């Protein structure tokens, strides 16, 4: 409490009526990365006490749903679910509320209960964020956005890579409102992918046609992949380098079967 009372964001939250100083983190993340836009349906995982819910509602003006193991005190215009994001029952409730279209944005500022053992706390953070990512993959619409808090450590890069395999763009960002002594960082995934290929995947293919730019073009489960430096009739092994919502790019690794 003494630390909070020396904190400008603590006093700003008090003055402006937000439930948490963390509200300003989401404002700053959104200003930088444009995660939430007007009219979006937003799901906040681990939402208590509700600081991010208030901000999400203010930015989107659309449907905002908060999920937490704790009961969230009512906020006008915001729906809440008391449940565990790792539970299929909770996922079903969220899906039932957002509908078949899915959520536009999933956000998560949750943190595990800290022990003071840094290695353990980092592992617990990664476990929680992995659960949040798993939940997001089940409820996001194609092209949707995701932001989650992570504690830095030796497993951080692997988690960022995992997010990168499911979104067209991935960034890490520390807002000014994060305390200087905190090891937290936010991972931002934009444009959720529902394609059958992921960065790093390898396939044996035959080049049957060239695209407008002269690159080879192949279909993998009816998804277009462009391949550089090939000609029609080549049988090659390719590796996916970049994935967009409607197509991907790959490079040649060798002849098919090598």
Automatic annotation (TrEMBL):
The active site is at 149 (proton acceptor). It is an enzyme of class 2 (transferase). It is found in: Cytoplasm. It catalyses: uridine(2552) in 23S rRNA + S-adenosyl-L-methionine = 2'-O-methyluridine(2552) in 23S rRNA + S-adenosyl-L-homocysteine + H(+). Specifically methylates the uridine in position 2552 of 23S rRNA at the 2'-O position of the ribose in the fully assembled 50S ribosomal subunit. GO terms for molecular function: rRNA (uridine-2'-O-)-methyltransferase activity. It comes from Methanolobus chelungpuianus. This is Ribosomal RNA large subunit methyltransferase E. Gene3D superfamilies: Nucleic acid-binding proteins (2.40.50.140), Vaccinia Virus protein VP39 (3.40.50.150). Pfam families: FtsJ, TRAM. Keywords: Cytoplasm, Methyltransferase, rRNA processing, S-adenosyl-L-methionine, Transferase. Belongs to the class I-like SAM-binding methyltransferase superfamily. RNA methyltransferase RlmE family. InterPro entries: NA-bd_OB-fold, RNA_methyltr_RlmE, RNA_MeTrfase_FtsJ_dom, rRNA-MeTfrase_E, SAM-dependent_MTases_sf, TRAM_dom. Residues 196-254 form the TRAM domain. Its EC number is 2.1.1.166. S-adenosyl-L-methionine binds at residues 50, 52, 68, 84, 109. The keyword Ribosomal protein does not apply. It comes from the Archaea. Its main location: cytoplasm. GO terms for cellular component: cytoplasm.
């Amino acid at each position: 409490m003494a630390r909070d009372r020396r904190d400008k964001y603590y006093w700003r939250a008090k003055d402006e009526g937000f439930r948490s100083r963390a509200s300003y983190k989401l404002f700053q993340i959104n200003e930088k990365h444009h995660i939430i836009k007007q009219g979006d349906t937003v799901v906040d995982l681990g939402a208590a006490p509700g600081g991010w819910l208030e901000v999400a509602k203010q930015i989107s003006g659309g449907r905002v749903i908060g999920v937490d193991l704790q009961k969230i005190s009512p906020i006008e215009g915001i729906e809440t679910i008391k449940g565990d994001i790792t539970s299929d029952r909770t996922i079903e409730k969220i899906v039932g509320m957002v509908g078949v279209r899915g959520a536009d944005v999933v956000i998560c500022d949750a943190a595990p209960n800290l022990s003071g053992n840094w290695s353990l706390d980092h592992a617990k953070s990664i476990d929680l964020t992995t659960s949040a990512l798993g939940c997001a993959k089940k409820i996001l619409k194609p092209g949707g956005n995701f932001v989650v808090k992570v504690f830095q450590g030796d497993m951080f890069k692997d988690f960022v890579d995992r997010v990168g395999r499911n979104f067209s763009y991935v960034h890490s960002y520390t807002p000014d409102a994060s305390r200087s002594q905190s090891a937290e960082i936010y991972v931002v995934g934009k444009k959720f992918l529902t394609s059958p290929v992921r960065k790093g995947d390898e396939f044996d293919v035959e080049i049957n046609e060239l695209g407008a730019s002269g690159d080879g073009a192949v279909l993998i489960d009816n998804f277009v992949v462009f391949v550089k430096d090939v000609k029609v009739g080549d049988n090659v092994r390719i590796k996916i380098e970049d994935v967009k919502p409607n197509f991907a790019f790959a490079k040649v690794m060798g002849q098919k079967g090598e």
